[in-house]
Amino acid sequence: MEAAPSSVAPGSLRVAGIRLIPRLDIKGPNLIKGIHLEGLRVVGDPQEYARRYYEQGADELIYMDIVASLYGRNSLKDIVSRTASDVFIPLTVGGGVRSVQDVRELLRAGADKVAINTAAVRRPELITEISQAFGSQCMVLSIEAKRKPQGGWEAYTDNGREHTHLDVIEWAGRGVELGAGEIMLTSIDQEGTRKGFDVELVRAVSQACGVPVIASGGMGTMDHLEAVCRDGMADAVAMADVIHYRRLELSEIRHQALQRGLSVRPHD
What we know:
The protein is α/β, with parallel strands linked by helices. It contains eleven helices and twelve strands. The longest helix is centred in the middle third of the chain and has 11 residues, at about 170-180.
């Protein structure tokens, strides 16, 4: 599966289309949601939500085991396997992935791409190992970003708990040099707030990296989506709260995006 080409200028629209991607954060068997990656509460059965989003025309799905790194394990293989049996769109899976073997097992279970944060920070050469083994399109660098008081953003790990003291823009660039084919960029400040994406953050990373960037964290309205695509140069938008709680239906988001002239992929 080839990822969409990255943006080249603010406000430009991609020929391949902006991808609309439901993000399903998982803890144990449950789909959960928090604010600023904290205060997690159960939403429901991830399998049911994945099937609903597939039927509504999602371009891809993201599964994140958000406490896997904290507890040193990954428990998504069974969920991924069940989802892949009746959901036929690309699946990106992350959380607790620490080795090439972990990636191989997730791909065998039905994942198409893996998103890695904590293990990549601890051992950056893992990015290269995964890229060389399975292709750069399989290796998604997940970055959890928080604004610094003095300006810029710091990358965090362990679901926004642990400082890395890495500058987000520099880390994103290094990740691409090491072989990452895509970046999933989550704003800790905006996540779960429904107040909009950190457009400045997304634009800064998009301009610095020659790979697709998935904007995650903060969508509450269609204006937010339009802003992060046009001004933030996002190639894809990950959304959770706004669709989990049916504030907007995914099919409605696609329809309105097309009406606004955004280059999302039409869905039959």
